[in-house]
Write a structure and sequence with these properties.
501 residues; alpha/beta; Aspartate Aminotransferase, domain 2; Aspartate Aminotransferase, domain 1; 2 domains; four-stranded antiparallel beta sheet; 21 strands; 17% strand
């Protein structure tokens, strides 16, 4: 593999040693805020499923690159040569990272994370086989792996998940096969998440692929959560039917905020149809009457000037993750997730959603929960205001999945909501949602202990905290005596002012 000076092949560190070096090197780990108590403490960032922090080493690599910045698609001056070669190297490095044969697959970048890429894939597959009018997705999908298929792919049918003793688990392969059998010849493709953004449950994507291919369907993987947590093998398996046809992920969830979305897909699918987007860079010749699309990958799929700096960040982060070893990353990830899960299960007042037996359904990086008789928004507000613990709440852009799991704790409210579904908005229903705690490679056991202590305090002092908050017109919980002003901590105009004075 061709390399460049930014990323030499010989590295001093790898595995555990490199992991320990990198885990403390993320921008924002030392950010401090003043709490409702008046105390100023360091933020504990437990919202990585929404977006990870920036890997410091990757950011510094991109700053180094800026010394040589130029546009790509030319090698006629020194900087352009550096930009073009480095940008091409990143595509090849990503293919290697997900073990996709470069002779069979291409990697190309898209605009807005996984969403943009999944829309592209849905339109591509629909164009390939318009006579096949059904797409199978699981009930556990993020909207970005559901709505694009509804709009571009055909009729979407949702596969229920394995319900081990009434808790939501992995994709039910037996039920998926029944759908494939019943609609054989009509199912164009199956699209499934690698890791749920709600529960952290890991799906067996290669087994899904084998099953889909058995019935003539393609398989697409939403790897938005998967890439930063789990080793991936798209091709080269002993059984080629287990190979993945297309995989989509997002750089901002892979320790590279500001980087593009990524699509890895079979060249054979893309080469037989005109690219979805047209413009500069994806053509060989343009005449007044017609134009000729290049046969070169990934150029034909990347119309316009690319997000070069974002790609540099992403390529650096991916390279570092690969040097550490994704088997080791997954081991560490599952260990801290299980460490937190075990302690949360000790409180009867805490309800954890999704299968909690990690032998049955392994989890990585994410736990969603509620405290009985408490609103998810209130719990998230207390964790922030009193403990400087950043978590996310509500429905995480996975409404059908969340609603299904909430039947365990909110069945009465759900039935009432169904009767007035056209009169309500999800975000204004105080009970509709969960609290999600999620981990990145920078989180520690000590931070989990602080979270557990905070959780226990909230459970034990629920009534005290409830008296301190009111709900605003947007359904958000606001402290009666404490307010936070973002401009006290960051103002773009003030930052610019300081830079130019």
């Amino acid at each position: 593999m061709e390399t460049d000076t930014l990323y030499p092949t010989t590295e001093a560190l790898s595995g555990k040693a490199l992991f320990e070096k990198i885990r403390g090197d993320f921008i924002g780990l030392d950010t401090e805020y003043t709490l409702a108590t008046g105390e100023t403490t360091r933020r504990i960032y437990l919202d990585s499923t929404a977006s990870t922090l920036m890997m410091g080493a990757a950011h510094r690599a991109s700053i180094e690159f800026l010394k040589h910045y130029a546009n790509t698609h030319s090698e006629m001056h020194f900087s352009a040569k550096i930009a073009t070669k480095t940008y091409g190297w990143i595509h090849r490095r990503i293919l290697e990272f997900v073990k996709a044969d470069p002779d069979e697959y291409t990697c190309y970048f898209t605009g807005s994370g996984t969403t943009s890429g999944m829309n592209r894939v849905a339109r591509t597959f629909n164009t390939l086989r318009p006579e096949r009018d059904i797409v199978l997705v699981s009930i556990m999908e993020h909207h970005s792996n559901d709505l694009p298929h509804r709009k571009h792919g055909g009729k979407v049918m949702h596969i229920p998940v394995d319900t081990h003793e009434s808790t939501m688990g992995c994709v039910d392969l037996d039920l998926m096969e029944k759908y494939l059998q019943e609609f054989e010849g009509r199912v164009n493709y199956v699209s499934v998440t690698g890791i749920s953004n709600v529960t952290g449950i890991i799906n067996p994507i290669n087994q899904v692929a084998e099953l889909a291919h058995r019935y003539g369907a393609y398989v697409v993987v939403d790897a938005a959560q998967l890439v930063a947590h789990v080793p991936i093998q798209m091709s080269g398996l002993e059984n080629s039917e287990m190979d993945i046809d297309a995989l989509v992920f997002s750089g901002h969830k892979t320790y590279a905020p500001g980087s593009p979305g990524v699509v890895i897909a079979r060249k054979s699918f893309l080469s037989v149809i005109e690219p979805d987007e047209v413009g500069g860079g994806m053509v060989d010749r343009v005449f007044p009457e017609n134009y000729f699309v290049t046969k070169k990958f990934p150029d034909r799929e990347e119309a316009g000037t690319p997000n070069i700096l974002g790609a540099i960040n992403l390529g650096a982060a991916i390279h570092i993750l690969d040097l550490i070893g994704m088997d080791f990353v997954l081991e560490e990830d599952m260990e801290i997730t299980n460490y937190c899960l075990k302690q949360m299960l000790e409180r009867d007042e805490v309800v954890i959603y999704g299968e909690t037996c990690t032998d049955t359904c392994p989890r990585a990086g994410t736990i969603s929960f509620n405290i009985k008789q408490m609103n998810h928004g209130l719990v998230a507000a207390i964790l922030n205001d009193y403990y400087n613990i950043a978590v996310r709440n509500e429905c995480f852009c996975a409404h059908p999945y969340v609603e299904k799991m909430l039947e365990l704790t909110h069945s009465e409210q759900i039935e009432e909501a169904k009767e007035k579904v056209h009169q309500i908005a999800w975000h204004t229903e105080p009970w509709m949602g969960m609290v999600r705690v999620s981990f990145g490679m920078y989180n520690t056991h000590e931070e989990v202990d602080l979270f557990i202590n905070a959780l226990n305090d909230i459970v034990d002092n629920r009534e005290k905290y409830e008296k301190l908050y009111t709900i605003n017109i947007h359904g958000d919980y606001m402290h009666k005596h404490f307010s936070f002003s973002s401009k006290d901590y960051f103002s773009l105009t003030e930052t610019i002012k300081q830079e130019i004075l």
